[in-house]
Amino acid sequence: MTRGLLAAASAIALFAGTAQAEMVLDILHTNDVHSRIEPINAYDSTCDAETIAAGECFGGVARIATKINELRDQINADGGNVIVLDAGDQYQGSLFYSTYKGKDVVEFMNDIGYDVMAVGNHEFDDGPEGLAVLTEGVDFPVISSNLDMSQSELLSGQVDKYTVLEVGDQKIGIISALATDTVETSSPGPDVIFQDEVDGLKASVQELTDQGVDKIIALTHVGYLRDKELAAAVPGLDAVVGGHSHTLLGDMEGALGKYPTMIDGADGVPVPVVTAYAYSKYVGHLKLTFDDEGVLTKAEGEPILLDNSVPEDEAIAARVAEMAAPIAEVRAKVVATSTGTIDGDRNNCRARECQMGNLVADAMLDRVKDQGITIAIQNGGGLRSSIDEGEVTMGEVYTVLPFQNTLATFQLTGEDIVTALENGASQYDEVAGRFAQVAGLKYTVDPAAEVDARISDVMVQADGEWVPIDPAATYGVTTNNYMRGGGDGYATFAQNGQNAYDFGPDLAEVVAEYLGAQDNGYAPYLDGRITVK
C-alpha cells in the first residue's frame, strides 16, 4: 500500500484553518498476532498445503515483514517519519507457541524491526517467566503504564511505564495500558501489581509532558470499547493504537467501526482510535498530521489486508519453514473428518451458542460421563478458530484449543452453577471470553438485564428429561483446569468446587478423540441450548 493509496482513503480533518503542518507521522501497527507465525486460512487457522497452492492464505510473519518493510522504506525515501508498533498478544494460538514458547516471537519481531510493543494478557500465559522470554530477548522496549513490576524478581526493570522515540527532530511518547482483568484471563502472578488503566495512562502523560514531549500515543491492550473510553478520559493523547478485542475497523464488510474512529478527547480535540483485527491478517497504517505547535490536525489511514497479493519475505519464510519442520508430523496427523465447517468465530462463541462450543462441551462431557458428571462448561474465549469441512488434522484442533488446558472435574451446587453462568454473561457487551458454552445444560441470557441478573430458565437433564436446575442439589461438572482455578472470573469454581481433580487429559486430545469416534464424520450443529433474548 503506497502513500498515494492511503491519501485516497477517507481523510478526516479535525478542524479547518489549521497552521502549516510541521510533521506527518506514519504509524504501522499490528495486534493480537497470537502465534500465527505461518500464513492462515479464511478461518484464522494455519494454512495447509492445498490452501497454500490455491493462493488463498493470509498473513504470517513473512508477509508482515514484506508489508512493513515496503511501507517503511517508501516513507523514509520520501523523507517522512515512521514508527512500527505492536499492541500485544503475540503469544499463544498455534503449535509454534506450544513448541518455542516465545523464542520464535523474539526472533521474528527483531527481524521485522518493531519500535515498541505493549504487554498483552497472553504474554503472561506461562507466568512472569513467559513474559521474561520476550522482554529479555527483543531489541525494543516492551511497555505498560499501569503495571508495577517492582515486586517481581524476574520482571523488575524489564517493563517500562513509557518510552520516548526520537523520530526525525521530534520526540514521540509511547504509553500503554493492559486490561486489569488479566489477573483472571491469564497468569501474571501475585507480584505483578495492576493499576487502573486511566490512572496509569494519566501518570505517564504527566511525566512525558513535564519532559516537554507534546506528541503522545497510547499503545494499549484493553479492547476497542475501552480504548474509546480511554481516548475520552485521558488528557494529552494524540492517538490510541489498540488490541485485545480483535476488532476489524475500516470500510470492508464486517468492520465494526471507522478506521480511524474519532472520539471527542478530554482536551476538546478529537482523538483517533485504531486497531487492526488479529492473527497477522492485517497491518494497520495510521497517518497523523501535526501543526507547528504539536497539535493534531488530521488523522487518516486504513488496515492493509495481507492476502496472497503480498509476497512473503523470502528469508523469513525460509526460517519459518525450518522452525515448522519439527512440528509438521504432529500437525499433519488426520484425526477425523467433518461434514461441514465447525464455526468457532469469536463473535459467536462469546455471545451465543456456537457450533465449536457445542463440539468442545460435548466432547468434555462424553469423556467423563461415566464418572457421574452431567454438566460441561467451556469459556468461549478458549475457542480460538473454526475448522473447515473435510479432513480434520491435529494441527487444526490445536489451533482451536492452543492453551494446553487439561480436563477438570468437580462437584458444585445448582446455585453456584447459576452464579457461574452469570459470570459468563457479566461482560457480554465487551464480547468477553468468559461467555459460557455448555453441554448437559440449557439456559437463557438477557444481555439488556443488570449484571448478575441476566441468566434465567436454567435446565438440566434428569432421567432423559429437561428439568429446572435445583439450587440446593449437587451436580458433577467438567471444565478446563484454567476455569476450575478461577480463570475468566469463575471464582466460584475455585472457591466452592468440591472433590476437584484438575489433571485430566489434554483438552485438545479429548476433542480430537471425540471427533475421530464419530461414524461417517462429525456433523456440526446447534440445538438451542443457549437462548439469547
- Uncertain runs with pLDDT below 50, 5 residues or more? 1-21
**Count of separate DSSP helical elements:** 18
| End-to-end separation | 43 Å
- Strand runs, count: 26
| Radius of gyration over all CA atoms, rounded | 23 Å
Per CATH, the superfamily of the largest domain is: Metallo-dependent phosphatases
- What is the helix content? 25-40%
The mean pLDDT is 94
Number of domains: 2
Oligomer: single chain
Main sheet: strands, sense, barrel? 7 strands, mixed
The backbone outline, from C-alpha atoms, is globular
Q: Mind telling me the CATH class of the largest domain?
A: Alpha Beta
Key features of this structure:
5'-nucleotidase,  domain 2, six-stranded mixed beta sheet, 533 residues, disordered N terminus, Purple Acid Phosphatase, chain A, domain 2, seven-stranded mixed beta sheet, globular, 2 domains, alpha/beta
Write the layout of secondary structure elements.
Layout: H1 3-8, E1 11-13, E2 21-30, H2 49-53, H3 61-77, E3 81-86, H4 95-100, H5 103-112, E4 116-118, H6 127-137, E5 142-143, E6 147-148, E7 162-167, E8 170-178, H7 182-185, E9 193-194, H8 197-210, E10 215-221, H9 224-233, E11 239-241, E12 261-264, E13 270-274, E14 282-291, E15 296-305, H10 314-324, H11 328-332, E16 334-338, H12 346-349, H13 355-368, E17 375-379, E18 390-393, H14 394-400, E19 407-413, H15 414-425, E20 436-439, E21 441-445, E22 455-462, E23 465-468, E24 474-480, H16 481-484, H17 491-496, E25 498-501, H18 507-516, E26 530-532
Parallel strand pairs: 2-3, 3-4, 4-5, 8-10, 10-11, 11-13, 17-24, 21-26
Antiparallel strand pairs: 1-15, 2-14, 6-9, 7-8, 12-13, 14-15, 16-18, 17-20, 19-24, 19-25, 21-22, 22-23
Helix pairs in contact: 13-18, 14-18
